[in-house]
Hints:
This protein is an all-beta fold and 398 residues long. It has one helix spanning 72-82, and strands at residues 83-91, 99-104, 112-113, 121-128, 134-141, 147-152, 159-161, 176-182, 189-199, 204-213, 221-222, 234-241, 247-254, 264-270, 277-278, 286-292, 299-303, 315-319, 327-328, 336-343, 349-356, 362-367, 374-375, 384-391.
Amino acid sequence: MTGTRQLPPTTTARTRARAGAGLLLAGALLTGCGAEPGEIPLSEIRAETPPATPVPTAAAEPAVAVSAPPDPALAAAASARHNGLIVGRVFLTGDRTTSAVFAFAPDGSGEQQLTRPPAQTRDDHPDWSPDGTTVAFDRTSAESAGRIWTIGADGENAHQVGPLCEPGALDCTNEEEVTPAFSPDGKQIAFSRTWGSSDPTAHQTQYSDLYLMSPDGTNAQRLTFLTNDKPYSGLVANPAWSPDGKQLVFSYQTSATGQPANSRALYVVNIDGTDLRRLTPWELRAGDRASWSPDGTQIVFTTYPAGADNTPGGGIYTAHPDGTAIGALTPGPSDVVYGAASYSPDGTSIAFTQAPVNGAAELYTMKSDGSNVAQLTNSPDRWESRPSWGTAVGAPRD
């Protein structure tokens, strides 16, 4: 049948739909178990048992995170061995309808434009392959839904990955695939998929969840089922892999009909779909793409205050992967706008986005404890954001 391309089942226990079966999906919302992607129309999927409500992990009150400074000689050696280029999204027009992926050296020098999008097209959410040779990103325009692309670090060999859906498939209405993220071994890409009817009042598509696939677009598998029984409830996006490749952290932004309404939080899930849990409290309003430290002990993320886009008052925080020890790296209360942050491959620094009120966003770096803030870019006529810090090509893997 038409639909999302299928693969053999993974090692995770999954139940296929059977003729005459009264229930079509095995697995509750929090277990991630279910039918293989695209076997049945998403509109027909129902959970066997009522899903449990995720229980947030207890988290400490936000406090400034402080860590001992790294040994300068060791840090310099590690940086030379590991830290490669930083890629980010750069708007090419004042109305922010066209954006491309650019690359920079860690000191902001050597700027190069990697992607060449058509007018009125946005290339966004770049992410490096683990060997530093390839960048995955999504491309969206008014005429085309979001699709995942890859391009070489030299700006060559740009091509679309997928799409997963075949024309006319029942579960492919308004379908798009965005926010790709390479696994640490380079063998998978995690991404956000949305599909279904559109609610113009809530500006929300019916379903949104995470998927996994091979870098060539095959072997697609649905990973999360957060919106399965709660259509129009929110947007699931921005996955980021743990260094060991066993978990993903991602953002969940709820709609006006979500619970709680119009809010944000980060979740963590195993790559087999089990052990879904909320990482950050709703009141912190964490969102966008988070980033794991290379040693797996910290997750850096950005918070966004309620209100219009680009409202000041958020910040950049870190937390342990179990949701404890939440600490602010940036001063508060904030009078600037912060954007997504990314650890350097050696773990000593963080690249992030910062913009003054009514000003253009620029890329910055700071030490992993929040000190030594340095501005990388200075382009008031553009908007530079969403950094992803890549590994130096040829660097050995620890």
